[in-house]
Amino acid sequence: MSTVGVTGEDRQDLTALENRAIRRRSLALLRELIAPHRRRLWVTVALVVVSTALQVVGPTLIARGVDTGLPAATNDHDFTPIVLITAGFLVSGFGAAALLALYTRWSIAMSQDVLGELRRRIFAHTQRLSLEFHERYTSGRIIARQTSDIDTLGELLNGGLSNLVSGVLFLVFTAVALVTIDPTSAIPLAFAMIPVAAVTWWFTIASRREFRASRIYSTRLIVQFVETMTGIRAVKSFRRERVNRETYADKVEDYREATRRTIQVYGMYDPALKMIGSLTVAAVLATGAFRVIDGALEVGALLAVVLYTRRFFGPIEGLAMFYNSFQSAGAALEKISGFLEERPTVVEPTDPKPFTATRGELEFRGVSFAYTSDRVVLPEFDLTIRGGETLALVGATGAGKSTIAKLIARFYDPTTGSITVDGRDLRDMSDVDLRSAITLVTQEAYLFSGSVADNIRMGKAGATDDEVERAARAVGAHEFITALPDGYDTDVNKRGNRLSAGQRQLVSFCRAFIADPPVLILDEATASLDIPSERLIQRGLTTLLAGRTAIIIAHRLSTVSIASRVLVMDRGRIVEDGATHDLLKGTGTFATLHRAWRDSLA
Fold first, then answer.
1. Which of 73-87, 118-132, 273-287 has the lowest mean pLDDT?
2. What are phi and psi of 155, to 5 degrees?
3. By mean pLDDT, which of 176-180, 250-254, 398-402, 576-580 is the weakest?
4. What residues contact 437, with CB distance under 8 A and at least 6 apart?
5. In terms of DSSP bridges, do strands 549-553 and 519-523 run parallel, antiparallel, or are they unpaired?
């Protein structure tokens, strides 16, 4: 199974080869994000090197003070050595603290820059991906990438990297200092590295597996929460609270268990390191004591090697903490890098020539469409929609009407054939030219937070107040807008919840009118309107559709009645095509549907 993009991101049975491929992808992304900050990174590394060296020098100065400073002060009353050693100890301590503070400030600023860039990149990539991706990849997963995964990575960048760099340097400097003072005392430490390496290897394998599982269950938890809150009206309408609560509780339990196993792994590793460290310090102290008695080692030197040995295991625990954070961040980075690896299925041409559609003539040449190889939605067909023509698409649910609308709007590309507007293939047009030429109004009229006027101006950036009001009057929305508390300045609230479904749709018509595209598609755009609103819209539609090519998809034949031409579809095929009045005179599918609709009004 492929691991490219988000494919298989929930898998926990990755092979060694797949693990390596995913790690390479994740590290490549991390290097790419850090690359612009290389100079600042090297400066911070230099600060850590000097700061760590100043920290390590402490036990050596203590040994000097015990073995040299104290005898000079007690025997010769010469306090100069002890004063100088004490001053050096204070300078090293304050210097290490100051450099560490400076390093922390620089590293946090750098990490926040990296995280900010990653957030912007994820957001931009989310918008760039095609509709096909968003229809299969839930919004909850995208939210998880943008929130919990980035937060986890932030924990690593904010503190984890400092633990890594300072820990490694501390180990190296401590080992050098220990060997310099007394090479013999380093022998027990060398032997201790064997069990340390063994338990660290075990911890590496176990923690990687558990952290990956933890990220998977965390994402599932967020997805369930987002879906429940998004559909809260349906949840309450169908009394789904108990079922959703139980489902969410199961996912909480999965996440809790994964987190428990993660903590348990670290809970076994950390005590093992402490036990090995205690045994090593005891061995160094015991062997060193006998050597002091024999005169082979000075007391100050013994004190220094014991301090160094004891402090040697502190950074190892710090590195374990770093690896703990690294595994969690690594699992999050795997998900983020996989998401960013996804590519749009509908791609804008690299060097599109400027083009402005004027007539709005659409032509389908040998077009077919299939979501998958075994799921053909539209068998191959040809179709010409003349400029300025109002065409109605009629048929049962699933007949392929909305798929044609999505192909015209280029939410999808046809599997075979081509679609042109005024002779230009849609695939050869820039996104800006395409969206200027074709506007799609769907059944779900989505409004963004802001005023009514702001939402209408989405159709034409920088439109004047007069243009906004003229658009509203044209589609019959002016009266209800002026009746709102603040008129055109009324905040529509989140997702337009302050307005009714019909009012939201009227605003979306205003948006389409002010955009003034040569081609306008209405995909069940009047389905959410009540009868009075629909009658109001019927008058506005005459103005809205005048002088442009219009494709109307609707089950309500009252909306279809304004069309000059009707296509009747059945299972992806066009079974009737003709002028509206000609089809009404016949005995075909459209005439039958129209008679049934007229009878229902009687």
1. 73-87
2. -60, -35
3. 176-180
4. 356, 357, 360, 421, 429, 517, 518, 519
5. parallel
CA end-to-end span of the chain, whole Å? 59
Inside any domain, residue 346: no
Query: What are the b/e assignments for 556-582, b being 16+ CB within 10 Å?
Result: ebebbbebebbbbbeebebebebebee
CB within 8 A of 246, min separation 6: which ones? Answer: none
- Residue 215 is encoded by which pair of tokens? 């990220």
Q: Is the dihedral of CA 421, 426, 430, 432 positive or negative?
A: positive
Whole-number pLDDT of residue 425: 94
Residues 333 and 389 in one domain: no
CATH of the domain at 246: 1.20.1560.10
Specify the number of domains making up the chain. Answer: 2
Residue 150: per-residue pLDDT: 87
> Cβ of 43: how many Cβ atoms within 10 Å?
15
C-alpha span between 146 and 28 (Å, rounded): 19
Rounded Cα gap, residues 137 and 150, in angstroms: 18
Full residue range of the structural domain in which residue 105 is found:
16-341
Same domain membership, residue 269 and residue 159? yes
Question: Which of 545, 554, 568 is closest to 524 using CA atoms?
Answer: 554
Of 434, 456, 433, the closest CA to residue 503 belongs to 456
> What is the pTM (predicted TM-score) of this model?
0.73
Q: Can you give the pLDDT at residue 519?
A: 94
In a shared domain, residues 248 and 375: no
484: domain CATH number is: 3.40.50.300
| Cα separation, 20 vs 14, whole angstroms | 10
Task: Determine the pLDDT at residue 3.
Answer: 65
What is the number of other CB atoms lying within 10 angstroms of the CB of residue 449? 13
Q: Report yes or no on 2 lying in a domain.
A: no
In a domain, 8, yes or no: no
Question: Does residue 75 share a domain with residue 29?
Answer: yes
305 and 401 share one domain: no
DSSP structure class, residue 353: P
Better-scored residue on pLDDT, 363 or 283 = 363
Domain end (from 295, 312, 341): 341
Q: Is the pLDDT of residue 36 over 80?
A: yes
pLDDT tens-digit series, residues 490-521: 988 765 567 887 788 888 888 888 988 999 99
**492 vs 477: CA distance, rounded Å:** 14
Residue 354 within a domain: no
Same structural domain, 386 and 527: yes
Element (H, E) at 376: strand 375-385
Cβ-proximal residues to 539 (8 Å cutoff; 6+ apart), any chain: 476
Q: Are residues 236 and 146 in the same domain?
A: yes
Q: What is the mean pLDDT of residues 280-295?
A: 81
Note whether 255 and 337 are same-domain residues.
yes
Tokens of 232: 């809260």
Residue with tokens 């702001």: 454
In this predicted model, what pLDDT tens digit does every residue of 154-173 receive, in sequence order? 877 776 666 677 777 777 77
